[in-house]
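Lab channel / #folding
Pinned by the channel admin:
"Please post every new chain as: sequence first, then the structure tokens as a reply. Keep commentary short and put observations after the output so the thread stays searchable."

First post following the new format, from NK:
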Amino acid sequence: MLCPVCGYSNAAAATQCQACGTQLVAEPKPAARAGDAVCANHPEQPALQPCARCGTFYCAACLERAADNQLYCANCRARSGLPWDQREELGLLRAWFQTCTRLMLEPTQTLAVTPRDGSIASSLLFTALCACAGVITTLMLCIPAYGRIIYMALDAAKKTGEGSGAPALGLGLVGGAAIFIVYFGMAVGGQVVSLFVLGALEHLILKLLGEREVGEYTVTVRAHALGLAPFVIGLIPFCGPMVMGLWSLVLRCITLMHLQRVSAGKAVAAILGPVVILCGCLGLGYVVIIAAAVGASGLSR
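Reply from TO:
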């Protein structure tokens, strides 16, 4: 196959020019039901196939193969990729929000044109933003409640003569803010730790399931991070955190299936496997504690 750019003669099945790297597309082959299909840009040319994103028929010259091995037209290629990967041009928060909404509303179409791999730092930053969005609104609204509880406790102690005489209202506000900082740090830190721990377990499970073409560990980490996109609805106080967890669990299965190119069953097994292991460990620990308590009570008698 001749390269249209440099004229180098490549093998017939080549998808990329060996000389200049231009993406190559095989010449259109006649199809039984595609006799009337013509290119949208060149009506005189027979169509090769529809664009994998918009579904419009194009000829071989108008289609380009992307990293996911699918063919896309020029317009769809211009919109390909994640806004998150273009955050230097779009801005950090705008790129993050657009990525979250696209992954939530059109996960399959978005992941079809998403680069498979990404840096650990990129996944870590996306996870941190999702974790912040998931808890910050609800916790901020809870600050007055926390402060009120501390204020009432201090005021009651002051009335009974057990208090220190310090302003109960001020201490209540400080205490509420302190509780917010602690909970916020635990929520964000927990998500960051789980990104690497659960990512490692998910990657290990895929290996144990005999998946030969599984990508690098960074691909699994990227899939886990992008699967946290529904945490954006945590900005809706109280009801948001109730929904985002389950939605995120489903999206994580989809992102892992597409980025690691595994079957749906293996993706679900990799995502739910660590959850089952954790529940099993907690259940075993509970049984051990109960058994120890029963044994201690028996010895005391």
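NK: The longest helix spans residues 168-208.
TO: also worth noting, The chain has nine helices and four strands.
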